[in-house]
Amino acid sequence: MEKATFAGGCFWCMVQPFDELPGILSITSGYTGGHVEDPVYEQVKTGETGHYEAVQIEFDPELFPYERLLSLFWVQIDPTDAGGQFQDRGDQYRTAIFYHTHRQKQLAEQSLEELASSGRFQKPIVTSVLPAVVFYPAEEEHQDFYKKEKKAYKEDRKQSGRDEFIEENWNA
Which of 13, 96, 137, 161 could hold 30 in an S-S bridge, CB 3.0 to 4.6 Å? Predict the structure, then answer.
C-alpha cells in the first residue's frame, strides 16, 4: 500500500472523485504543509497557518497506479490559479502534489511538465510538487462531507464554479 497526498482547493470537493474506486483503500481530508502543530479548521481557514487543505489517499498501486491518481487529480483543479481554487480564495486552497517517494516525485514532475507543454492552458501551471510532510486529519465533520451533508455539498460545489471549469477545460 502507498499514500498519495493532493491539495486541490476545498478538501470537500477532492474526496468524491477518488472515492469508491478499485484499489483506493481510504481518503482522509486534512491539513499539510503548514507551521502550526495539530491545526484545526478554524485556524487553517484563516490562511495564517501555512497549511493546505488536502486529501491523503491510501491506495494499492497494483490496482490503482499512482499515474492514474495523478491523471484524476489534474482534472479536478485549475492548475493555473495561484490564489486558491474557484470560489475558495487564500493560501489554504492552493494546489499541490505532495510526494511520498522518489518515484512519486518523478511521476508528478513528469505529469506537470506534460500538462505545461500540452498547450491546454494559456497561463502557466502553478501547482507545486512538494515533499510530503506531516498530515493532520481534519475534524470528523469534514470526513466524507459529500456523503454526510449531501445537500450542503451539492450547493457549495454548484456555487464554486468547479464543475463549469472542469467541463470547459478538461472535458472539452
Answer: 137
